[in-house]
Amino acid sequence: MGRLGSRPALRPLQHRDFRLLLAGSALVGVLLPLHLMTQVFWVSERFPGSAVLYSSILAGSRGAGMVVFSLVGGAIADRARRKRVLLVCESLSLILHGLIAVLMILEPGGAASVGFVAAVTFFAAGVQSIDSPARSASIPAAAGVENVGAAIALLAIASQLTMPLSLPVAGVMNELLPPGTVYASTLVVWVGILPLIAMLRLPGGAAPGASRTMFASIRDGLAYTRSHRPILAIVSVVLVVQVIGMPVATPLGPMFEIEVLGFTPAQVGLMGATWGLGSFTASLLLARAGGLALRGGSLAVAGLTFGVAILGFGYSRFIPLTAVSDYGMGFAFTGTSLVASTLVQHLVADEMRGRVLSLFPLSIGLAQAATALAGLAGGALGLTMLLPMLGWLVIAGVLLLVAAHRQFLGARVQPRTALARPPAA
Question: Is 414 exposed, middle or buried (0-12, 13-18, 19+ CB in 10 A)?
Fold first, then answer.
């Protein structure tokens, strides 16, 4: 482990708890694309005439579950031992996804089975939204506060490596087996996830605010975020980038490539790889140059770059420029998320950590819900008009936030070396 200590990007790996957390998070990351793709294959195979509608229903239920449960998850992460929260959440996830597999195999209500699957998916997404802030809030204790930036980047790299592997595996498995059987086979992954969590030695007893009601805890977290201007600036930039820009990733981007650029499905898949390459590059860069993730200016630049990349993508009819723009969107989108997470981890008080971090899965849930509105707008305005409009909205939103919070977004955050309450904003 001595060689790891000489490389800042790898120092989190010296810590046993972080290695366990990293391995468990990688396994959890394998499941999401498998589940998403397998549900799409299921509705396409079993209900081809209504596949688009049913896929939208399942995606909407997933986004709604994230929106409803994210703030609750943050409060729970600050009220209970985080290891216990992770164990309970992953145990419930195993049960809920097992139920989804049974519903997909048996189809007890025919077409109504889609409604049953959507209802259970809603709660499964909710459980994952409780798991996510507890997992993120565990990073400083698992890796050391001084290694938070590198730890977040390593977790992102693991995600970027597992997701591209999961997608082709999902395709091959669904060609060989019925989708319900494929979904059921993913349950074996929890054989690895649950023991990894059980072996964690995360410190912590009862949280200081555990005696307060859940509603009061959520209210305290929102009030803390609103009054702490640097954290409010970070969360606001993430909301602008994700809620306005995420629909470009899916479904508007692939639809644009097919309808405007005349791509085949295979070409759409190849173009999507450039987004993944951009995301992977951002993760590597921030792992090696941790100081960049401690600058408010990095967050502003990443947000503006994302808007500019959307403009390039929306205005381009030249395939190489489209590929460069897609790479830029992946780089900037992931860079925004990683820099924001790192800054918040260094700024937030530990007793508020889970509640503030829960705002990130909340923004993803809102972004998934926004995809439905973006799809309607695309049908009304046309994709050639809508995509550039979203790019300009991202740029305008980030510039307004820079003007409102220019003191923080132009400054460098001092890294913390212990879990302590930061100075009052």
Answer: exposed
135-153 pLDDT, tens digit each: 988 999 899 888 888 888 8
- What mean pLDDT comes out for the span 2-13? 71
Is the domain defined by 1-200 classed in CATH 1.20.1250.20? yes
Residue 191 pLDDT class (50, 70, 90 cuts): very high
Tokens linked to 149: 């930036």
Nearest to 114 by CA among 193, 48, 164: 48
Query: What letter does residue 147 receive in the DSSP assignment?
Result: G
- pLDDT for position 414: 61
Q: Which residue ranges does the chain devote to CATH 1.20.1250.20?
A: 1-200, 213-425
Q: Dump the DSSP string for 155-218.
A: HHHHHHHHHHHHHHHHHHHHHHS-HHHHHHHGGGGHHHHHHHHHT------S-TTTTS-HHHHH
Q: Is 295 helix (H, G, I), strand (E, B) or coil?
A: strand
Amino acid at 418: A
Beta bridge partners of 412: 295
Bridge-partner residues for 295, per DSSP? 412
Q: Is 424 left (phi over 0), alpha (psi -120 to 50) or beta?
A: beta
Can you say whether the dihedral through the CA atoms of 283, 287, 289, 295 is positive or negative? positive
CA-CA distance, 320 to 306, in Å (whole number)? 18
- Which has the closest alpha carbon to 157: 60, 269, 13, 37? 13
pLDDT above 60: residue 21: yes
338 near 287, Cβ under 8 Å? no
Least confident window among 93-97, 109-113, 379-383? 379-383
Fold of 213-425: Growth Hormone; Chain: A; (1.20.1250)
Q: What is the pLDDT of residue 421?
A: 45
Count of helix runs (H) and strand runs (E) in the chain = 20, 0
pTM of the model: 0.79
pLDDT-based confidence at residue 413 (cuts at 50, 70, 90): low
